[in-house]
Amino acid sequence: MELETVQIDLDTETPTVVLHEEDARELGIHPMDRVQLRYDDGTAIGVVKVTTGLVAVGQIGVTHPLTHLQGSVGVQPAPQPQSLRYIRRKLQDIELDRSEIRTIVQDLYHDRLTDVELSAYIAGVYANGMSLGETIHMTESMADVGDRIEWGEPVVADKHSIGGVPGNRTTPIVVAIVAAAGVKIPKTSSRGITSPAGTADTMEVFCDVELDADEIRRVVGETNGCLVWGGAIELSPVDDRIIRVETPLSLDPEGQVIASVLSKKRSAGSTHVVIDIPYGESAKVTSHTEARKLARDFKRVGERLDMRIRCAITRGDGPIGVGIGPAHEAQDVLEVLQGDGPPDLRSKGVRLASILLSECDVDADAEEILGSGRALETFRSIVAAQDGDPDVSVDDIRVGEHTRTLTAGRDGVVAHVDNSVVSELARRAGAPKDMAAGLQMHTGVGKEITSGDPVVTVYADSEPKLEDAIALSERAEVIRILHPDETLIEQL
Amino acid sequence: MELETVQIDLDTETPTVVLHEEDARELGIHPMDRVQLRYDDGTAIGVVKVTTGLVAVGQIGVTHPLTHLQGSVGVQPAPQPQSLRYIRRKLQDIELDRSEIRTIVQDLYHDRLTDVELSAYIAGVYANGMSLGETIHMTESMADVGDRIEWGEPVVADKHSIGGVPGNRTTPIVVAIVAAAGVKIPKTSSRGITSPAGTADTMEVFCDVELDADEIRRVVGETNGCLVWGGAIELSPVDDRIIRVETPLSLDPEGQVIASVLSKKRSAGSTHVVIDIPYGESAKVTSHTEARKLARDFKRVGERLDMRIRCAITRGDGPIGVGIGPAHEAQDVLEVLQGDGPPDLRSKGVRLASILLSECDVDADAEEILGSGRALETFRSIVAAQDGDPDVSVDDIRVGEHTRTLTAGRDGVVAHVDNSVVSELARRAGAPKDMAAGLQMHTGVGKEITSGDPVVTVYADSEPKLEDAIALSERAEVIRILHPDETLIEQL
């Protein structure tokens, strides 16, 4: 059937085409079926949605990944991709081999799988787990598509955190120390998707973070390090696709997490990596056992891929540092580099840098590099190389003007700080989109507190957003205060 | 955030809203997140797609299930539905209890789950199976939503086929015999989705099939039976939703199949059901073992729901009857009822009717009811009650004018007829949309054949469709002919 294309500006996750109900019936296809599209320059696959009005009979609506199609196209039913058989196999708990995993990754890369199918894959991996072999094949296959950076050096350091802990902004500190010690550390980071800030959001307070591969090479050439947003380069495009479906499902299968992290590191040319695994009641990893298993599996997969991996299992029972949100975290980071700042953030940054340097067989004292101001100097040179102001001071960093401080309602000891409530509070205040929005924490787990003491100050750019955050704090428990001898948490 | 609604005519499976990228960022939500919509008459949940052009900043596009929204609506991020936790639990192979299953069904009924989430549920059930308890709870929960028909009688008969076998049009024969025996049998059927005809398509050759619940009651009151399309009444709306995602995934978890069939029967008020389970190399059920397990599980779930179920495991190694496609199957059915017609279709119809009558404790001879013409008389009265011509003859049924007969390429015995190739051939010829399109089979499994003998005649309403079907027959094997002593099928 020949149909006339109509452009539809809709950001669909899979290449979607819109057919009129009558044409769909004529072709014998129904919603979510695939059609093959023949046009002058070649063929493409589209997934069908049906309308009775958005396009007319004889027309075909094309959405984002297909908007290059113009004029008349030939349309016919297309078969299901090969991957679907392998996804069913995974659901039957049959271990997939290298070529089957490669086919799934290729089909994802070429947009041949719908989100519904990808969801079934993620569900299969979550239900039946991934063997070590499967994780290795997945990591390699994912690293093999998209961009790749080669450094031509035996040691390229990197760092990753499993996440889930607000304010945990150690990355700029680790990069500054390691780069100052003479080791290349080209760090790409994410923006906050469900958190109030990613490292990329925090660094954007200081400088440009959207650099392409050539610019990254230049910055690392000048300073040994960089602190950029990974999304500007396509290091593991399939990973981005998988995460987009995992996030709404809240499924994070362990093998897929390992493949996700290590495929990106491999594409970035990293050889030595330290991985921060915080665990706690409201963190992503909730038990020590789980944290140790994840660490062991990271190391095993790394070994098979000739990457040296060290894992640090860390406290995730509450936020790290004082500030939460891009500007507030930027202040914490700058203060630590200047020799001051929140002690927990400082010690964590130094410890992670130490572990990474020792894994790289570099004889350097992280504490000394930070204490001497060399880390600060390197950090300022990275900021300069990324078009920021190298002379920035803490006072230059603007924070939200609309503020409110929440106070403790009773005396006692802080037994728990809820990471997800803290994150949501900062997000409602506007973070990470509003850089100046966020929180300053005034207490932490284990600290004594008296009724009326400040718990957290909320900063926002506007009064409605501040109100929205405050409204949440009235419903959800940011911190739990117990009397020192109290053991009962809740009576149901 | 207040946004102005814009109507978008797009048949989305979940209630989808389209936001401009800037508004989405402002709200801190990304594609596939949920938003709560506040309007004059209440609230609704929408799943977000993002655009930079289909709607402007300040607008919100609303699609089919939400097109009643008009003017200004309040939009804010909405939490994930409770079901998502239970879906994850199922993926962890934890058995779900009654209330958890009920919540999933309710969330599906109220359109609170996206297709991606439903896909994860189906994958979980496929990977980890469903216990007997889960299947029972699922069946009950599915039957409890949507329409329900009460008959106020102790015996209401019904019939179902697992499907996958073209031409298997026993239903009108069974209904005619059972209704003639004085037993109520209000039969709802499907249209062909991936097959060349459903019973509803075949019956539409004779009469109207889109009846509402009141009309069904009238027809059954007059004739004891009816033969209508189930889609016109909402007997198990959640089942329709699940099937729409199962179909493109080609996943058909056993427990879900049982819940799907029995929830519809329960909503239709049926008490005694015969289930036809054909098995064969190219049918839906491929082995005798699998067929027996399915039969046993159907009976067990039925017992717990106070329904009396009998299963007939039948031959599915090739089409039943001669005609395939609505008109051709209608001819077969009418011929059988007139005392002639394809012997396999006749004997299968009589056997299924016998089993059902005996399960209903009705002492009646199905063979006699058919042979005496009483079944034909009842069938004609049903056709009349559904606004058809009761005096229809086989010659009145028009078949496609464009025909081509495929012939055997060698001598031998027909070792295999491929159900899926036969179905696809009829579909390409235009069935079920073109009622007159279809096939006449001239041979079957086990029959001797000589080179040049007719194998199948293809009927279409137009030459291009006929050509399209013929083109398929040149690539795919409709029948496999072996010499009687030959054992090798293929050499690879």
Automatic annotation (TrEMBL), chains A, B:
<dbReference type="InterPro" id="IPR013466">
    <property type="entry name" value="Thymidine/AMP_Pase"/>
</dbReference>
<dbReference type="InterPro" id="IPR017459">
    <property type="entry name" value="Glycosyl_Trfase_fam3_N_dom"/>
</dbReference>
<feature type="domain" description="Pyrimidine nucleoside phosphorylase C-terminal">
    <location>
        <begin position="413"/>
        <end position="480"/>
    </location>
</feature>
<dbReference type="InterPro" id="IPR035902">
    <property type="entry name" value="Nuc_phospho_transferase"/>
</dbReference>
<dbReference type="InterPro" id="IPR017713">
    <property type="entry name" value="AMP_phosphorylase"/>
</dbReference>
<dbReference type="GO" id="GO:0046125">
    <property type="term" value="P:pyrimidine deoxyribonucleoside metabolic process"/>
</dbReference>
<dbReference type="InterPro" id="IPR009010">
    <property type="entry name" value="Asp_de-COase-like_dom_sf"/>
</dbReference>
<dbReference type="InterPro" id="IPR013102">
    <property type="entry name" value="PYNP_C"/>
</dbReference>
<dbReference type="Pfam" id="PF00591">
    <property type="entry name" value="Glycos_transf_3"/>
</dbReference>
<dbReference type="InterPro" id="IPR036320">
    <property type="entry name" value="Glycosyl_Trfase_fam3_N_dom_sf"/>
</dbReference>
<keyword id="KW-0328">Glycosyltransferase</keyword>
<dbReference type="GO" id="GO:0016763">
    <property type="term" value="F:pentosyltransferase activity"/>
</dbReference>
<protein>
    <recommendedName>
        <fullName>AMP phosphorylase</fullName>
        <ecNumber>2.4.2.57</ecNumber>
    </recommendedName>
</protein>
<dbReference type="InterPro" id="IPR000312">
    <property type="entry name" value="Glycosyl_Trfase_fam3"/>
</dbReference>
<dbReference type="InterPro" id="IPR000053">
    <property type="entry name" value="Thymidine/pyrmidine_PPase"/>
</dbReference>
<dbReference type="GO" id="GO:0005829">
    <property type="term" value="C:cytosol"/>
</dbReference>
<dbReference type="GO" id="GO:0006206">
    <property type="term" value="P:pyrimidine nucleobase metabolic process"/>
</dbReference>
<dbReference type="GO" id="GO:0004645">
    <property type="term" value="F:1,4-alpha-oligoglucan phosphorylase activity"/>
</dbReference>
<dbReference type="InterPro" id="IPR036566">
    <property type="entry name" value="PYNP-like_C_sf"/>
</dbReference>
<dbReference type="Pfam" id="PF07831">
    <property type="entry name" value="PYNP_C"/>
</dbReference>
<keyword id="KW-0808">Transferase</keyword>
<dbReference type="InterPro" id="IPR017872">
    <property type="entry name" value="Pyrmidine_PPase_CS"/>
</dbReference>
<dbReference type="Pfam" id="PF02885">
    <property type="entry name" value="Glycos_trans_3N"/>
</dbReference>
